[in-house]
Structure formats: C-alpha cells, structure tokens
Predict the 3D structure of the following.
Amino acid sequence: MKTAVALPIRWLLWTGLAGLWAAGCATAPPKVELPASLDIPRNVELTDVPFHPQDQYQCGPASLAMTLEWSGVAVTPEQLKPQVYTASRQGSLPPDMIGAARRHGRVAYPVHRLEYILKEVAGGHPVIVLQRLSSFMQTTWHYAVVIGYDLDRREIVLHSGVKKREVLSFDAFAETWRPWSRWAILTLSPNKLPVTAEAGVYLKAVVGLEQTQRWGEAETAYATAAARWPHHPTVWIGLGNSRYARGNLNGAEQAFRSAVRAAPEAGPAYNNLAHILMELNRKEEALNVIHQAIRLGGPLADVFRKTLAEIQQHPGG
C-alpha cells in the first residue's frame, strides 16, 4: 500500500478548516428559548442506543461505548478505558474521546447548540455531551449521552451515569452544559452525514480519520460528503488523497479532476493531479497540468515549480 502523498492536499485541508474545535468529565437557570422555526417531531426517544452503566470516574468510556456500539462498532467500556481514561485527572479528556472515536473509524462531529442536539436526536443520532455538575461540596465534569427529548414538556432524556433514563428540563440541562463548554460530539459511521452538517466542520472531522490512517473510512466519508457538496473542492481533494493512500491511482485521478472542475482557480488541485498523472506514466499530460498550476501562482508557486522539476526528471512517457 502506498503512503499518503506529500502534496498540498494537507495544506488545502488545514488552512481552510483549522480552529474549529475547542478542548474540553443556587441561582435559577436561564430559560432556554428554542428557535420558532425548529422543524422536528414534538418528542423522540432513541430506544436502540445501548446503555452501559459507568464505573467510578468512567463516564467517558461508558458514553463513548454507547454511541460507538450504536454506530456498529463492537466495543466495551473496559476496552475503551486505556484509550481515553487519564488516571491523574480521574476522568477522560475531550481530545482523547475524539481520538478514540476516530481510531474506531468514526467521524467525530462537534455540536455546539442545544437546538442542533435536538435535531440530531430527531434524525436518529445519539449525542455525547460534557456537563459540569455542581453541588455545594464540589464540581464534577461528566459525560452523558442524549437519547431523547420532549418539546411540550421541555425535557431532555439521557443515558447518564448509572441511570438508563435520566430526564432533565431544558433549562436544567442548559445550566450544566451551555455556559461552561458547549462540548458535544456525534460518532457517526462515515457513510452518514450529521443532520446539522456544515461542509467545513464536517471535512475537518474527516481529516481526523486521515490522521489515524483510517483511509478506507476517510474515503467513504469524503464520498458521502461529495454527494452533499459536489462543488466543494476540498471534498474532492480529500477523496483523491484517500484513494491515493490506498493505491487507487485511477480513482485519485478522477477525484482530482473533479476538484479542478469545482475550483478552476485552485492551484493545489492541478498540482496533485499532475503528480498522479506522472505516476501513471502520462508525462505529457502531467506537464500540461502543472503548467496550469504555475500560471495560477499563489503562495504555493515554489511547490508547483518543484513538481514541474520532478515531472521533467521522471522517466515515464
């Protein structure tokens, strides 16, 4: 199997998508006001989400096991514990939760608004949330899984701790979640899109699969994204990158050509296409394509010229 190509693919993905994630287990709460346009069923409860009661300090492994198992991954909290639990913190850190989801081939997609959580649940997707639970004696960070809601009763339903069905008012839930972190994630199979999917946020999440070398799942996720956002060049760049990493040069060529069609001004797309054509021993085509990248110029002009030199030195026909 080929390794990932060292091209501006990475540059194009990261420069456009960086900075989208945040790090992150008395008085009456503010009243939650949901948008009047919230078009979802009045009440939903996902009964197909497994429940794992947590051991002490193990809300992270338990919550992640629930959503991963729901998504089709056979895994237990005990198996996840060494991947996400930090003994010195007596808990699980959000980056470790995200990393473990990726290593299991799932797209870890962030959700930062209560109405988006409700929309995802209405779409059949359980949501892991990080709450700040305060009492007179202490404050505790806690992971739980949102599995339902009732708009008329203004209630949210969670798998939480040792409770299979914890019911909180919207206001009480918001008091534990919204002011402190607004941290929540989906762990979706790569052939599914979030109900609330935004292109940039989703593609950033898929890059995480590349980082963990889950190229098959990354390819599936990019193909899924391409069906939703066919005119987004980064989708096709990512798809080409994944196919190249799996040794599928012809598929990578098709993806990079789609990137060029989606963004004729995108020099990196031409550059990457030229590399693929070179490896396919289509030197003349590769030269024509890289000259187009050089004509476009931009901050990667030196990279394009280096690619030109490599193609010129390539023995292919």
Notes: The CA atoms of residues 17 and 204 lie 6 Å apart. The radius of gyration is 23 Å. Residues 1-26 have pLDDT under 50 and may be disordered. Residues 215-228 form the longest helix (14 residues).
